Amino acid sequence: MPKDKPKMEGDVYFPSNEVVAQAKSAELLAPYVRTIIEMGGEDAKLVSLAPDGDNGRLRIEDFSMNTLCAAGTGAFLDQQASRLGLSISTPS
């Protein structure tokens, strides 16, 4: 789990890293989301979110990153689909 603490300056929120930023965005914009998959040019991420008690907030339950390059994206997608109990060949 990311250990960095987000920073607040007045009403402005400064997340400590991109995983925290994505989780906070989901919490604010789509609080029903439990999985974020981000495919970038330099890396790919899967972030699993869970409710944090009854306060309406989300917490990062788990995350995985492919830190190589886009060349490993297909394998990363296959691994994460398997992790989620999905088949990459039969998307729904």
What does this structure look like?
The protein is of the alpha+beta class and 92 residues long. The chain has one domain. The protein is 25% helix and 30% strand. The chain has 2 helices and 5 strands, in the order E-E-H-E-E-E-H. It has helices at 18-29, 73-83, and strands at residues 7-9, 12-14, 35-39, 44-51, 58-66. The strands form 2 sheets. Strands 3-4-5 form a 3-stranded antiparallel sheet. Strand 1 (7-9) and strand 2 form a beta hairpin.
What's the end-to-end separation, in Å? Answer: 29 Å
Overall geometry = flat
Radius of gyration: 14 Å
Mean of residue pLDDT values: 80
Give the helix proportion (percent range): 25-40%
Task: Characterize the biggest β-sheet.
Answer: 3 strands, antiparallel
> What number of domains?
1
Strand order of the largest sheet: 3-4-5
Uncertain residue segments: none
Number of helices: 2
Helix/strand-derived class?
Answer: alpha+beta
- Provide the succession of SSEs: EEHEEEH
- Proportion of residues in β-strands: 25-35%
**Count of DSSP strands:** 5
SSE layout and pairing:
Elements: E1 7-9, E2 12-14, H1 18-29, E3 35-39, E4 44-51, E5 58-66, H2 73-83
Antiparallel strand pairs: 1-2, 3-4, 4-5
List keywords for this structure.
flat; single chain; 25% helix; three-stranded antiparallel β-sheet; 92 residues
Quick rundown:
With 92 residues, the protein is of the alpha+beta class. The protein has helices at residues 18-29, 73-83; strands spanning 7-9, 12-14, 35-39, 44-51, 58-66.
